[in-house]
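Batch 3, record 17
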Amino acid sequence: MSELLEFDDVVVTFAASAGMMSRLRGGTTSFNAVDHVNLSVARGEILGIVGESGSGKTTICKAALGLHGIAGGAVTLDGKPARLSDGSMQMVFQDPLSSLNPRQTIAEAIAIPLRLHGRAGRGDMTEAIDTLLKDVGLGAQFRNRFPHELSGGQLQRAAIARALATNPRVLFADEAVSKLDVSVRAQILNLLKRLRDSHDLTIVFVTHDLHVARFLCDRIAIMYFGKLLEFGPTRAVYADPKHPYTQELLGTLDHERKTVASTRDVFNPLTDDRRACRYLNRCPHAMAVCADRHPDFRSTGPGHATACYLYEEAKP
Amino acid sequence: MTETLLEVNDLNVAFRLASTNLTVSSDVSFSVDRGKVLGLIGESGSGKTVTSKAILRLLPKNASLDAKAIRFKGRDISTLSEAEFNRLRGTELAMIFQDPVGSFNPVKTIGWHFRTVGKLHRGASASRSEIMAEAKDVLAKADIADPENALKKYPHQMSGGMLQRCLIALVMFSKPSLIVADEPTTNLDNLVERQILDLFDKLRRETDASFIFITHDMTIAEMISDSVIVMYAGQIVEQGPTEALMRRPQHPYTQGLVRTARELEGEVETLTEISGEIGTGIHPENRCRFAPRCPLYEKACDHAIELRHVEGHGHVRCIKAGQAREIEG
Amino acid sequence: MKLKHFLHNRTALAGLTITTLFLLAVFFGPMLSKWSSNQHDFMNALQAPSWAHPFGTDSLGRDVITRVMEGARISLLISVSGVLAAMILGITAGLYSGFYGGWMDVIVMRVVDLLFAFPAFVLALFLMVALGYGVTNVALAIMLVYLPIFARITRNMTETVRNDAYVQAAQVMGQGTPRILFREILPNISAPILVQATIAVAFGIVIESGLSFIGLGVQPPTPSLGVIMADGQEYFRRSPWVLTLSGLSVTVALLGLNLLGDGLRDLSDPRLKVRE
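Prediction for the assembled complex:
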C-alpha cells in the first residue's frame, strides 16, 4: 500500500504557562507536546491515534493541518509538504456546534469551501450542496437552517459535508463522536466508514475511546506524552498489546476488574527526565536501561512495532 | 437486611418559561436501598440530571417539582422547610458533579473546604487539628499521594482527575448516606476513570452509602450498579435489576443501547444504528415518545404508554414488553 | 437579535423611541421651521419661550429651537464621523492583534494604553491645541478618543473566539486571514461593539459640545450645541432659557442613545437567547 501521509520526525513545542515557582524549582518552561514522532498513513486506511490527555494526539493533527507550528521534522502528503490552501486535508472537530459559524446557514457554510476551491460556481452551487448533504445523510431541508437548530448528530453530518466540499484526500477526525449521544454515535461511525470507501478517503481518527477505535480503525497508534509507543494492525494490538502502557490502557476495558489501577504519577513534562523512557514512572517492568534513554522501535509482529526494551532489538 | 433509603413516588419536574410550562421529567418512581447503587441511564433530553437535582432541591428558581412523596429514611423530605432540608444536604445527601471544578471555591484551598465541612458537621467548636487529621486520612484513602501538600493547594493547581479524587475524599469525609454522582467520570481519561470507579467502590464498601450513578455509558452502568433505570425524553422507559435488564432488555431503546455497547465490545463490520435523534420540541403526551425512532413501531403505539411490570424483570414502558429475546453479544 | 425581542425590551424600546424622535427633529425640524437659524431679530432678543419661539430667542433674536435642531444635527454628524473613523481603524487593529497575538498585539495594546491614559477631554483638547480649531479636527479628536476603546473591545472579543472550532475550520479549509477576521469572526463579536458605538456617539456629542463651548470647535455663527450653550451662558442672567434648553437637548440625546445602548447590551446577553 502506498504511503500517503508521512509524519517525519515531527516535533511540536509548547511553551508552558508555568508560574515562577515551578521554574525556580528547576523545571523548564517549554516541552515537546509531540516528541520526534515518525508515523506513516497508508492510502485508504483509517488510522487511529489513541492516547490520554497530554499525549499529543490532537496536537499532531493540528500541526499537520497548519493550525500549530512545527518545530522540527515535517509532514508530507504524497512526498510533498502539505499545504493548507489546496484543501487536500480536512478536519472534523469534537464539538460540532462550535465548529460551525453560528451566523451561517448550513448551505452557506458548505458553499464557502466550494467556492473557495472552485469546485462549484453560481450555476451549480445548489446542486453541489445538495449532493454533499445527501452524501452525509441530510435532506435538502437542512440547507437554510442555522447550527443552533440542528441536533448533535445532524451538526456533525453537516460538518463532515463541509469538510468533504474541498474533496480532501485526508480527513482528520478529532474525537468526532465523543460529544454525541451514545445512540447517535453508531450512525456517524458507520457514515465515516462508508465515506472512506465512497470518497476514496484516508482517515486519521484521534480518540481516547478504545471501543470506538477498535471498531473504526484498521491500524492503531498509541501516544503517551508526545511519544509514539506502539503501532500496528488494530486487531493485533488489541489481542496482544506489547507495550506496558498499551496493556494498562486496554486493561481498563476489563470489566471483571482483575487488574488494579496503578495510582503512580504520570509523566510530568516540566520536571521529569525527557531522555528516559516516557513511561518510566508507571511501568511495572522498569529496568535500569529505561532510565537512560527512551527506547527505539522494535518489530513485535507483522506491521507491528513497539518502543520498549522488553523486546528484542530488531528494526521494524 | 436491605433497608429502603430513598423512595421517590410520581415525581414530575417542569420549568416555567416565558409562555409555557415545559415538563422535563414526569411520572418518575423508584427506590434505592442502603448500600446499593442505582444506575440512572439516559442521554441528552432524558431528564436524568433534572430528576436527581430535583431530589436534592438544586433546581433553578423557575423550576417546579411535585411528587406524591419523596421519602428519605422513612421521612417525607419533600415537605421539609428550606432550613431543615439544608441540614440534610451536605450531611446525609451529597452530589458529585461531572466537573469537579464547580464544587470548589476557586479562591480557597482544599484544606479550607475540609475545615468548612468539618465545622458544619461537628459544630463551630470542632478542633481544627482533629479535622485536618481526618482530612489527611481520607485524602490518603482517596489515593492522593501527598495529602499534606494537597490540603494547601488551590483547585486550579490540580488536574481534573486529582480534583475529582479530592471531591470524593470530601464526600467520604462527610459520610453521607446517599450520594448522587452525575456523570462523574465522563470528562476523564480512561486510566483516571478506572481509578475513580474503584474509589467509588471503596467508598461504598467503607461507608455503606447508597449511590445514584448517572451515566450514558451502558458498560459502566453494568459494571457498578445493582439496579438500573433507563430514561428517555423525560420518562422512565425501563427499570429493573441490572443483570436482567442488560441480558434481556425489553424496551427497544434499551435494546439499542445495549446492542451498540455489545457491538463495540465485540467485532462487527457495521454497527446497528438507532435511527434519528431525540427531538428538540415538546414531547407528545398521547403517544410513545420513542416512536419516531423505534424499529418496532406500529399504530397500536399511538397512545400514552404506561409502565407495566414484567415478571422477573422490572417495569417497561412498551406494549411489546415481555416479548424480547436475549441480545446476542 | 430578533426584532420581536427588541421590541419587548423596554429599555431598548425607550431608547429607540427617544433617539428616533431626536433624529427626526434634527433632520427634518429645521426644514419645517418658519425661522432660519441665522435670522436676526434684534427687537425680539432674549425672549422667553412662546408659541412663536418654543425655546425663546437668543441674544441676536434668533429662534433658539431652530438653532438647537440644526446645531444638534451638526454635533451629531461630527460625532458620528469621528466614531465611524474610530470604528474602522480600531476594529481592524483589534481583529489583527487579537488574532495574531505576539508582538503585534503588544505594540497595538501599548498604543491603546497610551491613549487610554489621558482623560477623553484632555486628549481632545491636546489635539485641538496641536492642530488648531475647526470641525474636521473635532471629528479627529473624537476618533482619537474612541479608537482605543474599539480596538480593545474587538481585540478581547477576538481572543475569546479565536480558538473556537469554526475559526479553526475556516483556517483548515484555506480561507485567507482577512476573510476569516471580517467574515467569520467580526459578525460573531459585533454585539458589544454596536453597544459601544451608541455610547460613543452619545459622548462624542458631549466632547464636541465641550470643545465648541470653549471656542475650539465649530465656529459661530454656525450652530452647534456647544456654540449655542456658550452664547446662552453669556446671557444667562437675562434669559436662562437658551442655556437650559440647549443643555437639556444634549441630555435628551444622550439619554436616548444610552438607553438604546443599554437595551442592545441586555439583548445580546446570551442567557436570554431562547431556542427557536
